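Hi C.,

You asked whether I'd gotten around to modeling the 323-residue construct. I have! Everything is below, sequence then structure, no commentary in between.
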Amino acid sequence: MPPGVPAGAFGSRLHSLLSLLAGGSRLDQRPLQQIARDLFGLSLALGMIAKLRRQTAAVLERPVAELRPHVRQAEVVHIDETSWREDQAKAWLWVALTPLVTVFTIAATRCGGVARQILGEVARRVIVSERFPSSGWIELRQSCWAHLRREFQAMIDRGGEAAEVGRRLLEHSHKLFHWWHRVRDGTLARSTLKGSTDPWRGAVRQDLRRGAECSCAKTAATCRKLLGGEQHLWTSLRIAGVDPTNTAAERALRHAVIWRKLSGGTVSGSGSPFVERMVSAVATCRQQGRNVLEYLIACHEADLLGHPAPSLLPEDSMGSVAA
C-alpha cells in the first residue's frame, strides 16, 4: 500500500475518535460498539475495539514517555494517587502534574519507591501532596491544606475535647485561604502575606500542641504528625509559585476515578498502558489548549508514515529535550 494508507479497515480519524470516546469520555467497549453502529453504520467486534485501543496505546508510548523527564525537572510538581483495579487485583493510579503537563502511572503499590520513580531527584524542588506515608522522604514539600481542612472537620465530628481543637484549627485555615485568595487575585502582595502571618503561625502551633495532648487518640496522633512536619505547612508562604493545596492533582484524578467506578479498572495489565497514556494525553492537551482529537489523528497519521508521533511537551521545553 502507498505510504499513509492503513493496512486495516479503519483510518486515523475513526481510530482516534473511538480512542477519545473511550479515554476522554469513559465509554466502555459495548457503548463504543453501539456508537460506531449508530453514527457510521459500522459493525465492530469487541475484540477489534480492544485491538484499536492497544494500537492507540502503542502510538502514544513515545510522547507520553517524553513527559516523564519533564516532570522530574519541573520546579513545582503536584502528586496524588487513588486506588485502581488491574486484573482483579488492587493497584494504584498515580498522577504527577505541572502547569502544562500531566502524567498518569498505574502501579501495584502506593509506596515511596513509586513516588521516587515518578519524581526522580527532588532536591531544591517543591512537591505538593497530601500527607500520605510515601511522601515522608521529600524534604521540600507543601502539605495540602484542603486535605487538612477535612481532617480538622473530622476532629469536630468526634466531639468532646477534639471538637474544640478541630474548630480552632479550622478557623485558622479559613484565615489562610482568605489571605491566599487575595494573593491569587492580586489584592495582597505575597511579601505582605509572608510578613504578617508570623503571629498567626504561632497560634496554629499552639493549637496543634494543645491537640497533641488531647484525650482523643486519633486527634492527638494527627496533631503530633503535623507538628513533626510543621515546616511543610508553610512552604507556599516562603516560595513563589507554590499553591497551599493539592486541588489541581485531585481534580486531575476525578476523570480516572469515575472511569474506574464505571469500568471496574482494567481487566489485565495489557489494558493499563491505554489508560495511562490516553488520560495523560487528554489532560496534557487540555492544559495546553490543544485539540485532543486533532492530536490523536496526527499521532496515527505519523505512525502510518513511519514518523515519530508529535510531541506533547510544551514548546519552551522542546529545545532542552532535543539537547
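If it helps when you're writing up: Strands lie at 76-86, 89-97, 102-107, 126-129, 141-143.

Thanks,
B.
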